[in-house]
Records
---
Amino acid sequence: MLNNDELGLIWFDYNDISFSKVEKILHEFNEINDIFDAEKVKNAKLDAIDKSLKDKLLSVNFENFKEKIEDELYKYGISAITFVSKTYPEKLKNIDNPPLVLYTKGDISLLNKKSISIVGTRKPSDYGKIVCEKFTKELSGAGLVTVSGLAYGTDTIVAETTIKNGGKTIAVLAGGLDSIYPAQNKSLSKRIEENGLLVSEYRIGIRPQNYSFVNRNRIVSALGLGTLIVEAGKISGTITTARFAIEQGRELFVVPGNIYSLQSEGTNNLINEIPDTFTISPERILFKLKIKKKDTSNQTQSVQVDLNESKVLSLLSEKELSFDELCEKSQIKPSVLSALLIKMEMLDLVKKGDSNTYFKY
Amino acid sequence: MFSKISCFGLLGLNGFKIDVEVDTGLGLPSYDIVGLPDTAVKESKERVRSAIKNSGYKFPSNKITINLAPANVKKAGANFDLPIAVAILASNGIIESNKHNNFIIIGELGLDGGVRSVMGILPALISARKLGYTNFIVPKQNEKEASYIDGVNVYAVSNLSETVAFLNNNLNLLPVEKAIWKGEKSDKITEDFCRVKGQALAKRAIEIAVSGGHNIIMVGAPGAGKTMIAKCIPSIMPNLTFDEALEITKVHSIAGELDLSRGVVSSRPFRSPHHTASTVALTGGGKDAKPGEVSLASNGVLFLDELPEYSRSTLETLRQPLEDGVITVSRASGTFEYPANFMLVASMNPCPCGNYGVSGAVCTCSPNAIQNYLKRLSGPLLDRIDLKIDVERVAFLDITSKQLEEPSSEIKKRVDKARQIQNERFKGTGVHTNAKMTSKMINEFCKLDSQSEKLMELAFEKYHISARGYTRLLKVARTIADLDGSENIQSNHIAEALAYRNIDKFQM
């Protein structure tokens, strides 16, 4: 149940009044819910802030508004958390321009848990995909909640990997929770709802706009104790997230990449700029965030892998190889090799990228 | 005077007997054809008149009525020129004996009296023999084609006067010598796998696909060699049996695609229609309901290069033939069933620009564009494709290496062996390959041991395999086991089958 103060903030949100303006307006009132009190509105000095505001406030039918909001939230199964709600995460309060209202679906307790934001390009290279998967797995395995943005590529891998490994994940959307963007990730969003949380600062009916993706990024970075950048182009949304993380005083972790790879241009530049962000292992992140690694002495799988396994592993530890190259160097028959590789992939010993390239995991 | 000659026409792959009746009598000189003739048949009037005159006979100047019976079936093509001419000559007494009553006569005439080849001789003669007709006069050019039919006397003629002389017993023609099926000899020089460098995974997958009759799709960058690999497939396909060869020849004969100098198709067809091909071109149809590419590819390979570029509706029509092995074409002229028992080999790029996921190349497509590209292939269609593999670009060293790869003949030996195992297993069931197994057969022949089951369980967890995906996996694993000569499916076979499902690109 929303209290009247919360409804007040939601009213501001529904009228597109920005956070800074709301602050100014509320200076004129004792309580937030006073804005629904006609007498108090008449006495308040609001004209200096917004001339039409007074009329708007006077024309509000509080009961109608309350019913409308409650109906709408109920219909979509959304719960709203406002700046003054008890559940509103502290970590969002101290950032610039915090969201007035968070619309959520899923487990809201995750907002106040220790989390790591993992971001990167929408078109990761094979290398980026593997790095992303590995880091996500280790970090969520250590009990951190992962935070990402439900976009293609890195975001999708983060959410998928976390869920697959039984972790919790938060996805921050750039539009209302009634319209999932990109539509391709609709089914993923359902799974996130069940195994984590969907969050947006945009109310129902708001479609994502160009600017809202950048706005969204500030919430992504703010929700994490730190932000991990896997791969990023030179000028990209990911870089804006990195900037937000720095502004918000969060830790920043950047994974270096191939200097010739376009997808690593942004990340390599960041490391060049702030050498301390250089990150090559999940352990470093856990250490910096002072998280104790859970003891995950893996339960060994009982699928037999034959002796060729070590041959393949030693070849792959030098460099990633395509199927053909592996076949030639290991002198294993293609039929045997493909069976072997799939078994090793299932045991997370190797990882297949696009176009038959294999990496050591 | 009245005379009657028997001829054969075609409805789809089936021939039916047509009587050409001619009546010449008193009246104003006229010349009419009745009995639902199409344009080509109507025009035969002029050809017949000139052919008779130029062969040195007199064209009767009385009222001539020609009837093609049964009168309610549409007749098409130029098959009737020769029987009409013979019937006219018989009615005015130039052909004196009644010998012509014993023959089925088929042929087209030229203005000079020469007899030209016609389409569909083989299916027509096969149908005629089934109905008990054994004596035929056919164009000389169709001689080879007709020579493969057992138990018939075929006389080949090259012009009208020869025909007349033969029917008047003035010329002694010997029946066409029966040809003996010598098995497969390569019609064309096909590509050989020994020239495909590298591509170990793709080659292995193709071997499996051909062995078990599985459909396969190859995904890879432009220039990776998908087309080259596809072109090699006929070289490792099992030998044609005579029945298969006849079936292929029938279809090719009515489509007019037969090499008349050979008379029979002796190698498996490899059809690769361009992606602008219309639905009708693929399925068959048109005015005469001609067979399309899927039927011409029957018993061979239908190769669809750049699969997503085909129009969606065209691709969807492939679903019936992929399921049933036949295609039904319905047109105004009737409903015909053609064989469409082909192996589908498809190729595609990973994205519109072709570079997605290619090492060393930059893809310029938006994630949305890539998704849309893949979405052009419908789920039901992909469901019918058992193997999905990535084909990578070949490294420079591989291209330049002088070392010859394993030749097709070696691969073919393994394929033949695996096919033999399948033939024995499915004896008398009407199923020939693992790909066509029914669910009952899968239960019977694809039992898993405990280790395979454990592996399958792990795979289910890891790759989210659907029930359909599971069946496909079992079928492919069965084929791999057959190639291995193993009676039961082992965990290695399951693992290998898992390797040929492209999880990232297609949700299976």
---
Amino acid sequence: MTTFIQPAPSPAQVVQAAQSTLTMRGVSKVFGDGDAQVTALHPTDFEVRPGELVAVIGPSGSGKSTFLTLAGALQTPTEGSVTIAGQELSRLNARQLADFRLHHIGFVLQASNLIPYLNVREQLTLVPQLAGRGGAQAGALADELLRSLGLAERTGHYPGELSGGQKQRVAIARALMNDPQLILADEPTASLDGERGREVVSMLAREVAERGKAAVMVTHDERVLDLCTRVVRLEDGRVTAQGTA
Amino acid sequence: MFLALRELKFNWLRSALLGGIAALLAFMVFMLLGLTRGLSEDSAAWMLHSPAATFVTTTDADGNFTRSFIGKDDVAALRRANPDAAPFAQSFASFGVNAADSTQLGAVMMGLERDSFLAPKITEGQPMQGDGAVVDATLKEDGVKLGDTIILRPSGEELKVVGFTEGARLNHQPVMFVTLDEWQSLNPRAGGTVSGVALEAETVSSLPEGLAAQTRAEALQSLQGYKEEQGSLLMIQVFLVAVSALVMAVFFYVMTLQKTAQFGLLKAIGAGMRTLAGSLVAQVVLLTVAALAVAAAAMYGTTQVLPAGLPFALSWSAVAQASALLLLVSLLGSLLSLRTIAQADPLQALGQNG
């Protein structure tokens, strides 16, 4: 499959692109056992390379969330292997997995998922602080990310004082704080109107391209698919279509 | 710690309410501890603050001073072997002040040698001598002054109030100290016997036949009604502390339950169990310590305006002990909440979509 990147990648990113950031091989997830078995995801192969923003779409119950939690090392697959940034996840224990998530995966969660009692800048600086790397450098990175996402005026505000779009941009900035190779976004436009949704996703696409990240976005918002590099359609736990948007 | 402080500050009203409830509980614990200890002081202050380590009574009296009569020979034998032995005699007295038909007051009449180690510390006036008595300062509330005449019932013998002492109460009554000789002459039926012999030492050398020694703690238990009263008071304190601990634990637990989703979110962005647990414990400690400080200040303020006759006794060391206990039980209570944090699932932070 050809990798379509927008805008044009820098030479360094092309070299990186040779190796995919997220690789899933024959990954499936089955819940329950015996007669009560439910297959949330049938064996699936999937890859994301640096600079790509891949949209995963599908109706409710199609296995999108399961797909994202497997890619995000939040659940272990029943079969198959997940490799992120060259690390096979099945080789890590629970504690190592949490640490791995912290350093290599950035989550963009739904709009309400900011910590209500921290201001915008603290939402960001908390992440390296949790990883034991606080300090001026983290503060500078936070300021840079907030500027880049158009939130420079909002650094001292609390989530309750932000609009839905602003909250989502904070969530994107937060996901980038630990400089992860992989970014996973869960319905980032869920609570936004069309215009705000497009704005948020285009910012995500821009950051992903500029910083050479690999990103997967679960969404049911068809209006933003043109901003993505590729679209994967899931139905009943099976990939039914995969191709450029 | 950072998260703990930010959350407390952001939700300041909730923090203040929670801290306020903890402070009220702690205030109640302090006040009731003070009152119950005050009652226990009132019933045995003279013995609680006595420098005596050992009390000797007759074996058949089983430590009860009012049922013990030690003969002169035994007292003399005890004094030969134990130079500091201080005999004392105890009876009850009803009396009028300055006029035989005035309101009758009651006291424990205690006969002592004025140079023995048991002799009361004089806070006002002179030591007892002849018909001069030293009485506990709580009698001032009944209008007794230095130089007043005490007219004993029923036969009308007279004593003079020559001095006051403090902390001399026994069986919820003030103690009236007279010399041992005066006591013997006022109580001829005692036939020269004394109620007990007190020693500063923990052990008694050559105890005569028919006498038994008790430590101060044992003698307290033999004091009339003391054990029963202390049992009730102790149960009040135990229930109070237990219920306060439970209430505080439940409050912190409910506070934690409400935040389960938030814990999942924090876990999803990389917070470990240690960070979250540390944050919770820091909040519990901060709120509880602040509440205890407020409660201690409130208690101090209240004791300044309590009526003087109300028995209230609480030392700062007792406050510190009760505080440490409350802090400990609220920390134990927060262990309940740690389970909730451990179970919080970062998956919950991801939406419940397809």
